[in-house]
Amino acid sequence: MPIIGIDDTDSAREMCTTYITIEILKRTSLDLIGFPRLVRLNPNIPLKTRGNAAISITLGRGMGSKQEVGKIDGETVHSYERFEEAKLDIDLMSIIEEFSPRDEKTNPAVIVTGERENENFYWEAVREFVDYREVKGRIGGEIETINGDVGIVGANAANSWPEKHATYELISYLKKERWGGNHFVSPLGAEYLERNFPDTFDNFDFANNYNAIRPTTKTPVLFGIRGIDHVNLHRTLEYIESEPYDSYIIYKTNQGTDDHLVRRTISGTRLYDSSIIDGVVASNPVMIRGGVAIFDFSDGSGSIKAVAMQPTKEFRETVTKLRRGDRLRLFGGVTKEGYINLEKFKVLSLSNVLEIQPPLCLNCNIKMESVGKGKGYRCRRCGKRGEGEAKDASRGIAAETYEVPIVARRHLSRPLKLGVIA
After folding, report:
1. Main-chain phi, psi angles of 356, to 5 degrees
2. In this structure, CATH architecture of domain 3-253
3. Which end of the chain is more exposed for a tag (fewer CB within 10 A), N or C?
């Protein structure tokens, strides 16, 4: 059976790699075997495209029971678990050349193989830096590329994904003549799903009034709905108010799985790694230019600067409530040497922070005022002097896990509402 891995057919300006699925299914006489796969790659790699996604599609002659996975031009698309072998009956590269943008940063790749690749390749591609110039000898099947070989890493990673952890995404597409520009997707539907469909996630960010199912760039996609139950995703369409879409497909995906994260020490964390690190806050957080919250973090093997960037919005305010001595578990990625961008953190324990508070004047029954740093306090009415009182500080933070808001969440990051994958 042909297993087809595709990557890097989009650009910063247009297209979407997943749309190629629609054109393949339109043109082939073969059946879809299983769900099409949407695989997100290491989010820290500078070579990544906008969505940092690759796809894998398996085709054959379907047999036995089938299930609905979408619609194309009004016709229901089914997938099959059982199949007979069949040869590929379409020219994949002509589709890629027709729809992939002409862009010096776009490097489309197609890999066609008869069996799944070793899953180790996927784990490397989602967690580390894989050099496309050094991997051709590890990839089986037929490889075709345009404008260079960058895309072979993602294409092979999609083919080798073991589906150990998975969610689903329903993606709807516009007709080709309507690509680009602004399109209508009412936020009310996204709000309804966020409130009433607990098995869906990242639909609407109420704190930041952000409609997360609607793309913000030029793309064939009208909206995308993520969830853990593929059957229930069909139902969500009843609650979406939007302009017409031409097709939709449900993908099986590694989104929301935390597949990119690995437990490491600071000394064992390299550039482009995504890590889970236990350690201690080594300096009180500060907010620096650009709205970045930053603090030093150490674990005995080394130290690193933990940062919450401006797009993480209110998450930064939570970060600033941390204090030196707090024990944390950090989750994040290294995009610059010596810095880890936070996706979430768990408070393991809080240090006892004492706060010096002005004493009460016993004569006037009002709080004294500071005379100056290290000079004590004085009552503004009677002039009586006094010393500050050390009390436990109330910081508004507890021993729990905190995550960035939906507006800033990476595709791979697992929302807390879905629970932790052991």
Report:
1. -80, 120
2. 2-Layer Sandwich (3.30)
3. C
